[in-house]
Amino acid sequence: MSAEAEPPRRRGRPSRTEREQGPAARERILEAARSEFAARGYDKTSVRGIAKVAGVDAALVHHYFGSKDEVFAAAIEVSFEPALVVPAVLAEGPEQVGERLARFFFSVWENPATRAPLLAVIRSAVTHEAAAKALRTFVLRRLLERVAGDLDVPNPQFRAELAASHMIGIAFVRYVIKVEPLASVDQEEIVALVAPTLQRYLTQA
């Protein structure tokens, strides 16, 4: 036998490559999850389907995230991270806060990277408790509490909830069911019309 002859192949399951493990695999799983949840909703998305799109074994999804509920929460969290800048939006003072908040909120929806997870949670929240819980958790913790904490008006939490419900309702009609002409009108036109209502919610005693 030649010294350069190939060694015999090992039997059994092949070892995982770099592509199948590590931080890159985790990010691919999250990207696949965002895509699948946005397109299919919570109920019709499976861990196996996410794994297939990500190009990994389903066991790796469970390894990183545990359950379907947990991968769902991790997948949508990216859209709510921008809410960390809300205090800065509010810190500029009460003047035109409604306009600044509306522009910030709809800019998150206009960005394809953050829109997909938001579509997933909005579509799924009405039919599945895990999605509804995720929406309540992220919206309340990442957005409403920060808004309410900066409001010097009676019932600040209630006012922040009104503002959020107003914006989420518009987002549902514009981005989920896509009713025209709202679905295709320029973002700035929406901001101009919505901002006075948000201003009233957030600042008028």
UniProtKB/TrEMBL annotation:
Residues 46-65 bind DNA. Residues 23-83 form the HTH tetR-type domain. It holds the Pfam family TetR_C_16. It comes from the Bacteria. InterPro entries: Homeodomain-like_sf (IPR009057), HTH-type_TetR-like_transc_reg (IPR050109), HTH_TetR (IPR001647), Tet_transcr_reg_TetR-rel_C_sf (IPR036271), TetR_C_16 (IPR041678). The lineage of its organism: Bacteria, Bacillati, Actinomycetota, Actinomycetes, Kitasatosporales. Keywords: DNA-binding. This is TetR family transcriptional regulator. Residues 1-26 are annotated as: Disordered. SUPFAM superfamilies: Homeodomain-like, Tetracyclin repressor-like, C-terminal domain. Residues 15-26 have a biased composition (Basic and acidic residues).
